[in-house]
Amino acid sequence: MKPASFDYVRAESVEHAVQTLSGADGDGKIIAGGQSLMPMMNFRLVKPSVLVDINRIAGLDRIELRGDRMALGALVRHRMTAEDALIAEHIPVLHHAMKHVAHLTVRNRGTFCGSVCHADPAAEMPMMSLLLNGSIHIVSERGKRVLSAGDFFVGSLMTALEPDELVTEIEVDRLPAGTGWAFEEFARRHGDYALAAVAITMERQNGVATNVRIGLMGVGETPTRMPQLEAMLEGSEVTERTLEEVVDALRSAIEPNSDLNASADYRRYLAGTLTRRALSDAWLRARDMQS
Ligand SMILES: Cc1cc2nc3c(=O)[nH]c(=O)nc-3n(C[C@H](O)[C@H](O)[C@H](O)COP(=O)(O)OP(=O)(O)OC[C@H]3O[C@@H](n4cnc5c(N)ncnc54)[C@H](O)[C@@H]3O)c2cc1C
């Protein structure tokens, strides 16, 4: 398998990258880790005329804590996210989720932003950016814009990114100290794409759950938040009964697809089971912060 022929440009700066993209008449592609793009090119599922390599651009590989947000630059590799002390301390759910992404060799090259741009519905990082209220920072020759993760994902492998745009960084929430969290995933083998996964964060105040977030993947064309379930849990104690009610509501709310790997019914059942486990774990992890 070989890709169709293409021109290769090693960008020296963000300006150079967007200028090259803009000159490609909608037919250019950014290459970051290449872990998703190269297989797609080898299968000739994509045939860019110009490949714009951003790997030598200085300053895009930073992870920065900015108040209550954490910024991950376009060249932050999965392995950096997995090993970064700030992320482990302030966003433990992201630190943990990264262990489920592929294998070490893929994590050495693949990037957080590349995964979000690729928008595979079975990939962990798009869901994490949605769960953590991600802001996608985008630049082109036409200027800069910032999109919320909710507006960014429009379908399976489809985003709101225009062909001449480059993502420079993604900002996500850091979690207040004492936040409970959990990540549950089921894949056939470790490192495979998930059949379904759920990520949850919640705080606990005066014995009840607050600021509950529930993210799901593998049950639709894009990752999804479950605001109706978050609202059910807000201000409640997480008991066996609440868990039953939330899981029933979840199974009624989602409409997964059937595919080669699993039927829609199986995915619906699985999503409920994973959510139940994750809610119990997040609740147990949350430290009570009495007001
Ligand atoms: C064997 C294998 C197993 C894998 N398993 C998993 C898994 O379990 N979970 C998982 O989440 N992922 C998995 N992956 C995918 C991996 O995480 C990829 O690294 C990731 O999806 C894409 O990141 P990348 O940096 O390699 O992007 P690339 O492959 O370089 O690019 C992917 C797409 O995003 C675009 N892009 C990249 N960066 C930017 C940018 N800054 N601005 C604009 N567009 C950009 C590219 O043009 C391309 O369209 C697997 C990959 C392999 C090869």
Instruction: Give the count of helical stretches.
Output: 12
CATH class of the largest domain: Alpha Beta
The sequence of SSEs as H and E is EHEHEEEHHHHHHEEHEEEEEEEHHH
Shape: globular
Radius of gyration: 19 Å
Describe the structure.
This protein is of the alpha+beta class. It folds into three domains: 47 residues, Uridine Diphospho-n-acetylenolpyruvylglucosamine Reductase, domain 2 (2-Layer Sandwich), CATH 3.30.43.10; 110 residues, 2-Layer Sandwich (Uridine Diphospho-n-acetylenolpyruvylglucosamine Reductase, domain 3), CATH 3.30.465.10; 106 residues, Enolase-like, domain 1, CATH 3.30.390. Helices cover 35% and strands 26% of the residues. It is built from twelve helices and 14 strands. The chain has a five-stranded antiparallel sheet. A four-stranded antiparallel sheet has the order 11-12-13-14. The chain has a three-stranded parallel sheet with strand order 1-3-2, with helices on one face. Helix 7 crosses helix 8 and helix 11 runs antiparallel to helix 12. It is globular, with a radius of gyration of 19 Å. The mean pLDDT is 96. The chain binds flavin-adenine dinucleotide (FAD). The site of flavin-adenine dinucleotide has 28 residues, from strand 2, helix 6, helix 7, helix 8 and strand 10.
